[in-house]
Design a protein that fits this description.
15 helices; globular; two-stranded antiparallel sheet; mainly alpha; single chain
């Protein structure tokens, strides 16, 4: 039985959930140095404290899902992006330590504050390089990666790293609009608008740059009748950007969900550009898949655990809904 489409959806869900859920708390980390008082720093921390580590569950799901369901892709992609992946994981570990020690090592709180901010920025930039490397493709001979360890560092991937930093900052600002009040809320709206402008510009540049990387991507987007069928994607992206801009001026709930919508459309755009390739320009999802028996066996456990992950994630967000205060929360 062919269940590659099922595993494609599971892997796609895991990656998207990680990008959105861990994206906003990484965005909080990058906005963290802009806090003006200790109370504001506490507010920012408390807004993500109950849920930040659970968000990284989706990173584990995405990585293990790729290894188990598409082992050939894992064997090629991991060596190709080993350096940024290593940097990302070290930054996430350092950031996690900073989060915990900030409250327990008051004497060095300033150091841990900086570690939290820099760890968030470095992890995000590394993730953006991985994304850019996946889009531009890898040097492959036979069934193995044959390029160098730093082939993933190109002008395009460096730009996608900066672009993702803008996007995560937008998510973080919109999360603060949702969770805070007073002066911090007012400034978060301003941060959100600035991040939106940067994100919109970055998305536009990446969208125009990507077709020049691969003629197949250019034909997919611009050949007739594809251009007619796919034109709603950039038009919807523009529309939701305008809605987000307006919502940042007068609403506290809608901006975050509009920002998620903007990420959804960007994610859809990448999927349209690459599908059905999982190792761009070399192997499709079916080519890289493990045996049907293996995928079926793994799917049984995954389909049992995935609803549990979704339920406890949703429940944690529901329990800790509402505005946060600096004098309550994580200590």
């Amino acid at each position: 039985m062919n269940i590659v489409p099922l595993w494609t959806m599971i892997l796609g869900l895991g990656v998207f959930a990680y990008v959105v859920l861990d994206g906003f708390d990484l965005g909080i980390g990058m906005l963290y140095p802009l806090a003006r008082t200790r109370d504001e720093r506490n507010l920012m921390m408390n807004s993500i404290a109950p849920i930040w580590d659970g968000n990284e569950t989706w990173l584990v799901l995405g990585g293990t899902g790729l290894l188990a369901a598409f082992p050939l892709a894992f064997a090629i992609i991991l060596p190709a992006v080993y350096f940024p992946i290593l940097v990302m994981l070290l930054a996430l570990v350092f950031r996690g330590c900073a989060f915990e020690f900030r409250y327990r090592d008051a004497e060095h709180r300033g150091f841990w504050d900086h570690a939290f901010a820099y760890g968030s920025g470095v992890a995000t930039f590394a993730q953006g390089i991985v994304l850019g490397a996946l889009i531009q493709g890898f040097e492959v001979e036979g069934r193995a990666f044959t390029g160098g360890p730093f082939d993933c560092i190109t002008p395009f991937t460096l730009f996608t790293g900066l672009a993702l930093m803008c996007g995560y900052t937008l998510l973080g600002a919109c999360w603060l609009v949702l969770k805070t009040e007073g002066a911090l809320l007012k400034r978060a709206r301003d941060y959100g608008r600035k991040a939106l402008l940067a994100t919109a510009a970055a998305v536009g540049i990446v969208s125009l740059w990507t077709p020049f990387i691969d003629p197949d991507i250019a034909r997919r987007w611009f050949a007739w009748p594809n251009i007619a069928f796919l034109s709603p994607v950039p038009l919807a992206t523009l529309a939701i950007s305008l809605l987000l801009w307006r919502a940042l001026g007068k609403n506290t709930v809608r901006p975050f969900f509009y920002a998620v919508g903007l990420f959804t459309l960007s994610y859809l755009g990448i999927a349209i550009s690459l599908y059905p390739m999982i190792v761009p320009h070399h192997f499709s999802l079916h080519d890289a898949a493990s045996s049907p028996e293996t995928q079926t066996f793994l799917a049984l456990g995954t389909l049992f655990l995935l609803p549990i992950i979704i339920v406890y994630t949703g429940w944690s967000y529901w329990v800790f809904r509402g505005k946060v205060r600096a004098d309550t929360g994580y200590h």
